[in-house]
Amino acid sequence: MANAQYSSFQPPLWLKKGLIILLTVLLSLLLLACGSDGKDGQNGIPGEPGPVPVIIPEVSTNATALTVTINSIAIDTTTVVNFSVADQVGLPVVNLSEPRFSLAKLIPGTNGNSSAWQSYINNTENADGNGPGTETTIQATQDRTGTLTNNQDGSYSYTFSNNISEITSPIAVTYQPELSHRLAIQISGNEQPVTNVIYDWRPADGATSDIFSREIVKTQSCNTCHDGLALHGGGRVESKLCVTCHNPGSFDANSGNTLDYTVMVHKIHRGEQLPSVVAGNEYAIWGFRDTKHDYSEVTLPMDIRNCSKCHDSSDPATPNTANWQSTPTIAACGSCHDDIDFALGKSGGHAGGIMTDNSECSVCHRAGAFVGSIADSHQITRQIAANNFKFNILSVTNTAPNEFPKVTFSITNPSAADAAYDILNDAEFTAGGGASRIAVDIAWSTTEYSNEGTGALVASALSLNPLTSAFDNGDGSFTVTSTTAIPTGQKGSGSVALEGHPAVDLDNDGSFTDRVPVKTAVSYFTITDFSAIARREVVTIEQCQACHVNLSLHGDNRNDNIPACLMCHNPSATDINRRPASPSDGLKEQSVDFKHMIHAIHASGKREKPFIVYGFGNSKHDFSTVTYPGKLNNCQACHVDDSYQLPLQPQVQGTTIDTGASLAARADDLKVTPTAAVCSSCHDDPLSKAHMLQNGGASFSTSQDAIDNFDVVETCAFCHGDGALSDVKVVHGVK
User: CA nearest 560: which of 444, 396, 413, 386?
Assistant: First the structure.
């Protein structure tokens, strides 16, 4: 029935007409494709070309670091630099703005003079009454008013505004293409990554290698202390750029002082110890917008004679470092010895007579000559003598509770096949007047030192004098026995330190009066632990030595060993037994807890109140003038790994600020909770303390029992802990 219906179906008229039209169009297209002769396989008539695709090159939109390539430099009547800029992943940077250019030639030293950079670009500066200077001076500067052409593909061209080939004003600087030249580019500001570009070459032949150079100090050496050298608003971070302007001929008009890098840097680093400053004068330079920079209170954290700290002759990156030894000059020597007037000869303090130029300096100041080598003149003889001594802790026995510890040790000479000294008879250990001193210190527990039961006041370690009480074992070793037993109930592990200073005769006059700062030795012993457990490590001596080189404290008794410092500088220790009746800060006592004291000393420039500690013989140590050369917020400069992060380790105790009625007992000590003790060492202002109290559960008046029993609980880590909203690392900008 259904099939019969379909067979009788007739399509409507409109559908028939549509099919006819469609067939006609298809037939026309087929004939057109086949050509006029109807043959298959022939090309049809070409159509109109389509649009050419536009490829937009990828460019940098978020540069965090820049790589600059110098493509060419042409110096003629105009000076043109062609260069390219890419970001950290190699994408072209097309939005570079306001680069600054320095250009200098390196003048070889003659007639005793040292080689020196001379800038082609200079200005004059007039003294304006802000300082003692009265003369108009010359100052090297940068070219920043030339023409910058941006090719919009990461490449640029800069045409200097100065005609380098013919500089006559304000001083004449002859273009000498046969000499080594340095182009320096400063990129900074406008949210650009700070970048200093250095390009050394010889214009005469385009050579960039094996050319005369003056590589004496590298920026990395500066940054071991300065932790990111950034000057003149933060845009100049490379010492090789600095020297292009800090030339011998540049002077500050307001002070009259030279801006020569050789002189200025030496004088800044000697700071408060400059003879002129000690005599009551100041060393200052007036900078941008007549800003005064007074360097008279700069405190170098090492002996100024540690020349190799900056001038490392073993570093292949500074092949000309030995210049300071081979080429003495009035300017270089007079920068530190600024109380000498060489032109006046002996009456001016120069024993070698009148010197008006550098031509004869090396006649006396060289190896084998009358004065000897400059390197020998700058030797720190006490440190050299220390190489002849080594403290060795051989064993610690009888260390259980109620036992009297026995410490066996030796002192040997590494320079003589480790031959042992006889500390009871050798002159180095028997000199009077305090010249010879050796001590064995015992402390407990390494979980967190408190030294309760040592008999010493305010948490100091137990100290024994082996020079008067040691037993000679007959094999080069000695044993000293404690007069105090390990207290009943004491647990964990303890530590022993061998510290002090032998005496030597440095001037060979037969008198052993010179103290030698020998590295302190530390060893650990068990009290109730199965094996000895060392005190946790938070900082290392190597990190301290980045600035201090040789850390020698307490009259050369404690040297280059942080674990030894911690034995006495523990949370319960204060300076109460050293304070005079009327201390200058008005405090009953000051904490010398390492975690509080070290932060407070280094943060003296940030603190609101001066940090003052009284030491041996009631001596006052005012750290308010300490000038920290690095970035104070870079916790990793001193800390091991993330040991600065919150929360602190659970064994960290509160810091004593009042020892209570009994100096020997710890239970009545008034404490600051641990995190607050650390943070308030830098942030000592009332607002910061209020924040700690209101938001962190801190206390500035509690007991260790209350902390141990969780009656007082710090909650600082909720906001400032690792990964939290105000992570210490983030707040301090640690990278």
Answer: 386
Residue 525, strand partner residues: 494
Using 50, 70 and 90 to split pLDDT, how confident is the model at 54? low
List, in sequence order, the alpha helices (H) in 398-484.
427-430, 466-469
- Chain-wide mean pLDDT for the chain? 92
Least Cα distance to 100 among 220, 236, 225, 210 occurs for 236
Instruction: Say what angle helices 674-682 and 686-696 make with each other, to 10 degrees.
Output: 160
Distance CA 527, CA 486 (A): 8
Q: Could you tell me the two tokens for 735? A: 């990278």
- Cα 539 to Cα 80, 164, 413, 535: the distances in Å are 51, 52, 29, 12
DSSP structural state of residue 186: E
Helix then strand then coil, in percent of the chain rounded to 5, is 25, 20, 55
* Cβ atoms within 10 Å of 419's Cβ, excluding its own: 11
DSSP string, 484-539: SPPPTT--SEEEEEEEEE-EE-TT-SS---EE--PPPEEEEEESSSSS--PPPPSB
Q: Is 478 in contact with 438 (CB distance < 8 Å)?
A: no
Whether the Cβ atoms of residue 166 and residue 120 lie closer than 8 Å to each other: no
Question: b/e string for 680-699 if b means 16 or more Cβ within 10 A?
Answer: bbbbbeeeebeebeeebbbb
Q: Which of 245, 429, 211, 414 is nearest to 320 (CA)?
A: 211
Residue with the bigger pLDDT between 541 and 15: it is 541
Give Rg (Cα) of the chain: 37
- For residues 414 and 408, the answer to whether their CB atoms sit within 8 Å is no
Q: What is the pLDDT of residues 190-207, one digit of tens each?
A: 999 999 999 999 999 999
Residue 220 φ then ψ, to 5°: -60, -35
The predicted-structure confidence for 129-174, as pLDDT tens digits, reads as follows: 999 999 999 999 999 999 999 999 999 999 999 999 999 999 999 9
pLDDT at res. 670:
97
Neighbours of 68 (CB within 10 A): 19
Residue type for position 463 = S
Residue 501: is its pLDDT beyond 80?
yes
Residues in the chain: 735
CA distance 368 to 216: 24
- In contact, 317 and 215? CB cutoff 8 Å: yes
Round to whole Å and give the CA distance between 368 and 698.
Answer: 65
pTM to 2 decimal places:
0.87
Question: Are 654 and 450 contacting, i.e. CB atoms less than 8 angstroms apart?
Answer: no
Check pLDDT > 80 for residue 43. Answer: no
Q: What confidence score (pLDDT) does residue 4 get?
A: 32
What is the per-residue pLDDT for 16? 45
Asked whether the CA dihedral 156, 161, 165, 170 is positive or negative, the reply is: negative
Position 33 pLDDT exceeds 60: no
d(CA 582, CA 572): 23
The amino acid at residue 396 is V
Contact 642, 728 (CB under 8 A): no
